[in-house]
Every structure is written in C-alpha cells, then in structure tokens.
Design a protein that fits this description.
globular; six-stranded mixed β-sheet; 4 helices; about 20% helix; Jelly Rolls; binds 2-oxoglutaric acid; alpha+beta; single chain
C-alpha cells in the first residue's frame, strides 16, 4: 500500500498555488457560502489516493474529532479527480449522523490498510440507517458536515481513485483546548480573531511557501495531538 505521505499531505493549499486556486474556486465557495455564510476560512486539506486493487480503506469517523471546532459549523468538500464509484471505493455517508454530535469510539482500527493515521473507529452498530455511497465523476464534489459519520472501502477497480478535500468554517468558531491554530480567510471578513491568519501561497516563492506551510502544519498537528490523536505523524 502506498499512502501519500508526509508534510505535503496536510494543508497544501498553503504550499501550492494550484491547490489554493482549487480551494477558492468561486463555484465551490458559493456552495460553501450557501451553507455557512459569507465569511469563510479554510482550515485544512488533504489528498485521498487509493491505488487500484489495494487494501487501503477509511474506517468510520467524524472529521471534527481532529479539528475540535466548537460549535461544529465545519464542512468538508471532497473533490473527485478520478471517478469515485462503488467499485473504486467512493466515500459512504451515514445520513443524519451529524445530528448526534461526537460519537463513541470502538478500539482504534490501526490495520495497515486504514488511511486514517489515528485508526478512528466510530461505533455504528446502533445505527438504523444504511450507509449511502457518494458516487462522483471527476470535477464533481460532495460537501459533508464535520460531524457526519463516513468512511470508505478498498478500491477494487483498475485505476487510481483520487480526491482532494478542503475544510471550511466561519471565523467566529472557538476550538477545544489551549493551542492556537491558523486558517486562511478566503471570503468575507474575520471580526473575531480566533485563528491566526495564514497567507495564500505566492507564485515563484516556493521557499517562503514551504516555510509558512510547515509553520501552519506544526500548529495544526499540535492541536490534533492535544485532542488525543497521538499518531498524527504515523505515515511520515
Ligand atoms: O477519501 C476517502 O475515502 C475518505 C475521505 C474522508 O474521510 C474525508 O474526506 O473526510
């Protein structure tokens, strides 16, 4: 199994202008604005690449476990770069599960195929609703609430399944714990100052972008650790 590893897997909208452009595409921000209002920050992003006929999967989890935003007015947009189908291991959502807040966890699933470094493993045994597959064509996106329980199965197809996620929230949210983190204001204004402001990547300043990126990732990982995920560096 080959996971996309290391620092470059986290918050790379700060490192690469193309990723920043993707994260701030007006159509995407319009959809996010419809859901969380006109003031929008990006908090995080990552890439989800599943090789064909590999055992990589994603255990049932909630995204806000890693972010600790309170209240959880946080969204994840998943953008397909290749077909995400049931065969290629598209995401599966548990509809309505976002309404119950943070869920109880089973013992971590730290099998080598689990793409979650923490092995987060939500107990869905009591849920009455069947998971829904989120089938997407390249260029399409889904958006989910950061308390929505979701996961995905291995890619049984012949080609890579590739997606990129961006996490958005309004500036007024607090964060559980003491550590301060940063986010990038991409629309509207920040009248609250709860997050340090990040800088968009500067074309032709790869060195500067790399330094700013690493600084922001360090704060992000500090928060993830503070929230109880000691294995945030597991795939480095
Ligand atoms: O790409 C996947 O299969 C899982 C993605 C995911 O868990 C997420 O975007 O939060």
């Amino acid at each position: 199994m080959k996971f996309f590893r290391g620092l470059g897997q986290t918050k790379f909208y700060l490192r690469f202008p193309w990723a920043f452009e993707m994260a701030t595409h007006p159509k995407l921000l319009d959809a996010v604005e419809d859901l969380i209002g006109p003031d929008i920050m990006i908090y995080h992003n990552t890439a989800w690449i599943k090789e064909p006929s590999d055992d990589a999967y994603v255990s049932w989890h909630q995204d806000n476990t890693y972010f600790g935003h309170d209240p959880c007015e946080v969204l994840t947009a998943w953008i397909a770069l290749s077909p995400a189908t049931e065969q290629s291991g598209c995401m599966q959502f548990l509809p309505g599960s976002q309404k119950g807040g943070l869920r109880n966890l089973k013992a971590p699933d730290i099998g080598s195929g689990n793409m979650l470094s923490s092995g987060q493993n939500v107990d869905i045994s009591g849920d009455q609703i069947d998971p829904v597959s989120v089938v997407l064509q390249p260029g399409e996106a889904s958006i989910h609430h950061a308390f929505l329980v979701h996961g995905s199965l291995p890619n049984k197809g012949n080609d890579r399944r590739m997606g990129i996620t961006f996490i958005y929230h309004p500036p007024h949210l607090g964060q559980i714990g003491e550590g301060r983190t940063s986010a990038l204001l991409v629309r509207g204004e920040d009248r609250f100052g709860k997050f340090d402001h990040e800088q968009a990547p500067v074309p032709d300043d790869d060195e500067g972008n790399a330094i700013r990126h690493e600084h922001a990732v360090t704060a992000y990982r500090g928060k993830v650790r503070e929230l109880g995920n000691a294995t945030v560096d597991r795939f480095d």
